[in-house]
Design a protein that fits this description.
This protein has 200 residues and is of the alpha/beta class. It has a single domain, classed as Phosphoglycerate mutase-like (Rossmann fold). Helix content is 43%, strand content 14%. A six-stranded mixed β-sheet has the order 3-2-4-1-5-6. Strand 2, helix 3 and strand 3 form a beta-alpha-beta unit. Catalyzes the interconversion of 2-phosphoglycerate and 3-phosphoglycerate.
Amino acid sequence: MAKLFLVRHGQSLWNLENRFTGWHDIDITDMGIEEAKKAGIALKKEKIDIAFTSVLIRAKHTLSIILDELGKPDIPIVMDKALNERSYGNLEGLNKAETALKYGDEQVHTWRRSYDVVPPGGESLKDTYNRVIPYFEKEIAPLLKKGENVLIVAHGNSLRALIMYLEHLSPEEILEREIATGIPITYIFDENFHVSRRDP
């Protein structure tokens, strides 16, 4: 039975500053480094055959710390922008509270927590889903079907899209799902490539 491990990158500087980050290439904080180390410790007993990550530094840095913690820096790594965070377009770099004052709480909440509403110049969660899932089906699912264990280190919304797919969630259900930084989520697949267990 293959295992899929999902990890959201450790806290980034713009997470800390409550800014829309999206595709901006912002590194992790000291706390993010600690979160990545804890993720590595949590995965210590697991066999990992290959790792995937986005092209953004916060995910790549988190992955390198996890692999160092595992003592397995030579695991094959595949980087692809298909796993990047959702683009927030013109909102990127803006403080979320200040943006709410400018556009109104309801509008900002809609941009952040709707499935198919696009922020100015950015992507909806639906758009993110439509790039993450074809990539997963083409590049990652075949490895899992062969029995390989896969680690993906990515972002809140790219992982939310993948979780929606794996758990057959509705747009309303996935919008309620919070994904903590640096805490591995494990999916175990049966021989028919159905999720037989999720932890936690």
